[in-house]
Amino acid sequence: MDKTAARSFFKSKRKALTKLQIEDLSLQIANRIVKLPIWEKEFYHLFLPIEKQKEVNTEFIMHVLQGKDKHIVISKSNFVDFTMQHFLLTDTTQIEVNKFGIPEPKNGIEIKPEQLDVIFIPLLASDSKGNRVGYGKGFYDRFLHRCKPSVLKIGLSFFEPIDHKIEGFTENDMQLNYLVTPKDTFQF
Question: Which pTM was predicted?
């Protein structure tokens, strides 16, 4: 299976999920994340889910991070050059849904990618080697290349990884350190 086929297959699988299933599966993922050895870190990058894409609801993870008094960082996407700008989430951060359905900060304190310790990454699919398939625009790969080498990359998925290697990856594609699903946690 190549990246295009995996993207199409897992988009349709996710489309079949109900809102209730998404909430339940997202909570199971958050409960698994609590058990990861990542809590001595300081800056955690968290994506805000695109509701129409039926992404993992990261609100549960956000509550865990807030409860542990961690710095939460969220992104704003630039669709001209496919880059992201990152902002500290505070009580005064205003969130607005852009024309693509992505919740983003309107303002805030900018955080450089080099400051981040842990990044929770949205994806459509992953293979058993930690290769991830996103939406195909390369936002996260560009972003991850700007982070320090020690940053922990944690993919969140409703589905288990594909047993065989997904074809079509290049040296620009960044591999995950962990994949967290409702049923299991995979370390690469």
Answer: 0.94
